[in-house]
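ok so i was messing around last nite and threw this chain in just to see what happens. nothing serious, just curious
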Amino acid sequence: MDQHSIPKLLAGNLLLSAPFLNDANFVRSVILLCEHEDQGSFGFVINKPSILALGDLVKELDFLECEVFGGGPVEQNTLHFIYFGSQILPDSKPLGEEIWWGGDFSTLVHLLKSHQLEVDQVRFFLGYSGWDQGQLQAELADDTWVVYSGATTLPVFENSSDQIWRQLMKVMGGEFEIQSNYPLDPRLN
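result:
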């Protein structure tokens, strides 16, 4: 891909890993892009559940049945969140239509405890995926990622995490729909 055909990236875009990406951190991953600036980019892998539940990490919320996703290989000792709906946390940043990233965590805990925000409106992530200046553009030029710029609400909050990558590739149609059925290892086909 030449530099002129690399799409303009915006917060809220989804990055789908190329079908044959061999990086164990990102095989068949879908990443919600949170920031894309000249000095770098970062986002969260939305389709890789971790083995931990939220109550394992935040004792105040151990009453909730909530899985935590592996947001990426960077700083896996940090907990991040996004939520769906109206902006209920003043410091949160928009990531598209009715998706918000971050905000005051103690306020989030209070809203979850009081059911002003339901657990199915929130996704939690351990760590994040990050790129240094120019790194993501270089990976896009190398066809490491496919940019999905459609509505992100349904893929992030309503699809089964193990099917998101395949479903989005099919929605994009053409060669992407065909690639959605490629085996992980074509030598086994």
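not much to say yet. The mean pLDDT is 87.
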